[in-house]
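Hi there, hope your week has been kind to you so far. It would help a lot if you went through both lines with me. No rush at all, and the record is pasted right below:

***
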Amino acid sequence: MKPAPRDAADWEAVEEAVELLHEERFREAMVELREVLKESPGNAYAYYFLGIAFFESGETEAARDAYAACVKLAPAHLGARVALCHVLRMLGDSGGAIREGMAALSAAPGDADALYAIGLAYHARGDETAARSYLDAFLATNPEFEVAVETRALLAAVGGASADDRVEDDED
C-alpha cells in the first residue's frame, strides 16, 4: 500500500534528522527537527524523533512532551505510545504509564514492547502480581536474549520464577 502524500512528505521531511539520530548526533537532530516543525507543525514523525533525541540527551520531561504531541497528532503511533509509557514511568507517573501502555496494547494486542512497558510500569507502581502477568506474557513472545535475561532477573528479584522458568523446571 502506497503511503498518503502527506505521510510521505512528513517522512521525507525528517529523513535527515533520522540519519543524525543514527549517528548519535542528538543535538543536531533536535535543531533539524525543530526546523521541520516550524515548517510543518502537524508532522507527527518530527515529534516522535524529537522525543528520541531528547530522551537520548537526558531530557526526559522534554521527551515526554514530544511523545505526547506525537500521540495527540497520531493516536495510532505505537512506537510513540510505548515510548511515552516508558518515559512516564521513569518520571514517576506509573498511572499515566499504565494508561498509555494499555492504549498501545489495545491498538496492538500481544505487542511485545507494550507488554514489557506495562509490566515495568506495574512494577514501578509496586503491583508485582500485575507486573509478573505482563512480563510473563512478554517473555512468551520470545524476545531478544538480552532483554529476556534482564526480565527473568527482574522477576526473580521480585520473588519467584517466571512462567518460562516454571515450564523449564517442570520439564526436568
